[in-house]
Amino acid sequence: MFLKNRMKEYTGNCSVQIERLKQALETADAVLIGAGAGLSTSAGLTYSGERFERYFAEFHQKYGITDMYSGGFYPYSTLEEYWAWWSRHIFYNRYVDAPLPAYQELLALVKDKDYFVLTTNVDHQFQRAGFDKKKLFYTQGDYGLWQCSKACHNKTYDNEDAVRQMIDQQQDMEIPSDLIPRCPVCGSLMTMNLRCDNTFVQDEGWYAAQSRYSDFVRRHKHGTVLYLELGVGNNTPVIIKYPFWKYTLENPNAIYACVNFGQAYAPREIAERSVCLDADIGRILSALNRKAVS
Ligand SMILES: [Zn+2]
Questions:
Q1: pTM of the prediction?
Q2: Which residue of 107, 146, 207, 272 is 20 to 30 Å from 226, comparing CA positions?
Q3: What is the DSSP secondary-structure string of the chain?
């Protein structure tokens, strides 16, 4: 339906696009937010550079790892070291507030609207910022949950206490052996509840959120709906980007907005009803809030 070579890229006047997005936010009956990694990057949860060095300097020195993403795939020689890495990764991306207020700026814009959030982010920052849990669908999992690595049963487990213990008790890049998490049912190792392969556990909470998302989409097939896509890359476009284009195409009163540093574009079929902003998301959200109160 949408061909890449027929995309329309907007490089026009940024303030005009911000004004169009502001109007779309104000007049929309409903706002469906689709958020990807770019939103968390804009909130300061960066995976490399100074922030990586602050928390993972020893891993850089020992293995030459230079960012949090690739370090998650490193073949550590012991489970104690593997969990020293992962407990830091989980803690500093899931159990701390983001350094910059992009999520709070977003909430300020939609809190009085009929909204819902679909996200591939697994860092829980929507809830930390105060978004209503019932309006969130984390499709790809949550750093704050573990599951059996063999997926022997369909349940996830909150890991906060265990992760804090690992952080407190690790020494020389190793956690104590007795903190290695094991499945309470089959004794296999536990793993992050992330959609990496077909062992991803979709528990009751996941299905309930999926159902609420489907209901929201169904209730808003018509009317002035804003599909607000923030920081969604091209790794998994079938989750947010392609459905948002399709919903916009099917509803002549819908607006599609894409805010993404370096990758803001829309198909020509919906170009006239699209707002594309190639800019830092936090800066755009802040500008929208300033406009909203002026
Ligand atoms: Zn198990």
A1: 0.91
A2: 207
A3: ---GGGEEE--S-HHHHHHHHHHHHHH-SEEEEEE-HHHHHHTT--SBHHHHHHHHHHHHHHH---BHHHHTT---SSHHHHHHHHHHHHHHHHSS--SS-HHHHHHHHHTTSEEEEEE---S-HHHHTT--GGGEEETTEEEEEEEETT--SS--EE-HHHHHHHHHH-BTTB--GGGS-B-TTT-PBEEEEE-SSTT----HHHHHHHHHHHHHHHHTSSSSEEEEEES--SSSTTTTHHHHHHHHHH-TT-EEEEE-TT--EEEGGGGGGEEEE-S-HHHHHHHHHHHHH-
Segment 109-164, tens digit of pLDDT: 999 999 999 999 999 999 999 999 999 999 999 999 999 999 999 999 999 999 99
Query: Could you tell me the distance, in angstroms and rounded to a whole number, from the CA of residue 191 to the centre of ligand 1?
Result: 10
For residue 178, the CA-to-ligand 1 centroid distance in Å is 18
List residues, by chain if needed, whose CB lies under 5 Å from ion ligand 1.
148, 152, 183, 185-186, 188
